[in-house]
Amino acid sequence: SFALSRVKDIVTFEGIRENLLMGYGLVVGLNGTGDNLNNSSFTQQGLVDLLEKLGVNTRGASLKTKNIAAVTVTAKLPPFARHGSTIDVTVSTLGDAKSLLGGTLLATPLLGADGEVYAVAQGQIAIG
Questions:
Q1: Of 80, 87, 102, nearest to 13 (Cα)?
Q2: In contact, 99 and 30? CB cutoff 8 Å
Q3: Which of 33, 47, 109, 127 is the most buried (most CB within 10 A)?
Q4: How far apart are CA 91 and CA 128, in angstroms?
Q5: Which residues fall within 8 angstroms of residue 41, CB to CB, at 6 or more apart?
Q6: Looking at the whole model, is its pTM more than 0.90?
Q7: What Cα–Cα distance (Å) separates residue 77 from each residue in 39, 80, 89, 119?
Q8: Mind listing the pLDDT tens digit for each residue in 45-60?
């Protein structure tokens, strides 16, 4: 008779660690609780860039919406994460938004320390 052992039970890997990811994104669909665009130029620029990517020319237009907020998105990518795995993300406001409740995070690339994109975050915001 012989004992069975799993490799992960008898081996330790050096240098294996989780990776911290970070990105800049926009949360939309806020009911008047988003950033004041007059106070948050980075939110306004993010909105202009988004609309231009979608083919909407806003140059010279006065944008006054309070239904959008600029956010940072952070996550920890576990070691040995596989393609298609899901991870939790944390969304934090950059501007003067009062609440992200009811908002939707638009597709946000999450970058590692090397500047490469390792994940993309998108979806409804859960407040907890």
A1: 80
A2: yes
A3: 47
A4: 11
A5: none
A6: no
A7: 33, 9, 10, 9
A8: 888 888 888 899 887 7
